[in-house]
Amino acid sequence: MFAKKSLGQNFLMHRQTAERIADAAHLSPEDTVLEIGPGTGMLTAPLLARAGKVVAVEADAALAEKLREMFANEIAAEKLKLVEGDVRAFDPSSISGAYAVVANIPYYITGEIIRQFLEALHQPRSMTLLVQKEVAERVAPRRRSGQTRGEKESLLSISVKTYGTPHYEFTVPRGAFKPAPKVDSAVLSIADIRNPFRSEAEKQHFFAVLHAGFAHKRKKLVKNLALAFPDADVSAALRAAKLDPDTRAEDVPLPAWHALAKTLLYI
Ligand code: SAM
Question: Which of 6, 44, 125, 153 can pair with 38 through a Cys bridge, CB separation 3.0 to 4.6 Å?
Fold first, then answer.
């Protein structure tokens, strides 16, 4: 089988890895799972064994055809719903009730997928994703025992923490895939997903502040914010958030971003 690079196809080779990913999602027969990119069905099988229902969205028509043959019984029993198409066009509201996302995702749309589901009107209760190791580490640094180094935040890590609780589950070496990608992967879970905003305007404002704060990596937070908000407001916001004027965005934890957004006026 030829893997399509353009569709980010790196297939899991070992059932054991797929089982471990499915275990990390803590599924029960009451659960509905959304799988993005079922591919050859390596992860689909253990998901079907653990959850009550699986909805799987696959963009590759040839793979979808094979999956329809492979899982004909599960499809007939309505345990598996196979959707052929681009996940970015998939509306999560079409799933009735609570659901969890579990997937070995195509890496070319990692950011888009995380954002699409965290910001959805019908959010999943959790996400368990195989992503590039570097992405997992950026969102949820692994704590090595005895180390107390300060956690560095990024636009992605704060965005994820805004909606849920990320955790680095385990590393999956590149050799576990065919074709092997250039980098190692890791399973990133995001639990307790919720919407912390009371309105769309509040959300837009929060992310405007976050994007302004991270706009220029080398600049201090105060300088970055001053490019988007009046100087006096920025000083007041830093005081309200109890932040030192020398602080950089990467050192600002989530509660302080909420404090900054609360004090800065909407633009
Ligand atoms: N789940 C399989 C596994 O673990 O072996 C395949 C994982 S592979 C990294 C990514 C899968 O996502 C491929 O099957 C690919 O065809 C599919 N895919 C790529 N882009 C997609 C998109 N925009 N929407 C839905 N599926 C997509």
Answer: 44
Which ligand 1 atom is at minimum distance from the Cα of 12?
5
Q: Is the pTM of this model over 0.85?
A: yes
Nearest to 260 by CA among 162, 177, 186, 122: 162
- Domains in the chain with CATH codes: 5-191 (3.40.50.150), 200-266 (1.10.8.100)
* φ, ψ (nearest 5 deg) of residue 165: -115, 105
Burial of 215 (0-12, 13-18, 19+ CB in 10 A): middle
| Ligand 1 neighbours (beta carbon < 6 A) | 7-12, 36-40, 42-43, 57-60, 63, 86-88, 104, 106, 109
Nearest CA to ligand 1 atom 14: 39
State which of 7, 34, 116 you would mutate to test the pocket of ligand 1, scoring each by most atoms of that ligand within 8 A of its C-beta. 7
pLDDT over threshold 50, residue 160? yes
Q: What is the pLDDT of residue 142?
A: 83
Residue closest by Cα to atom 12 of ligand 1: 37
Residue 152, CA atoms < 13 Å, CB-side half-sphere: 5
Phi, psi of 19 (to 5 degrees): -65, -40
**Could you tell me the CA-to-CA distances from 239 to 230, 236, 248, 257 in Å, in that order?**
15, 5, 15, 12
Distances (CA, A) of 176 to 5, 48, 104, 137: 17, 21, 12, 19
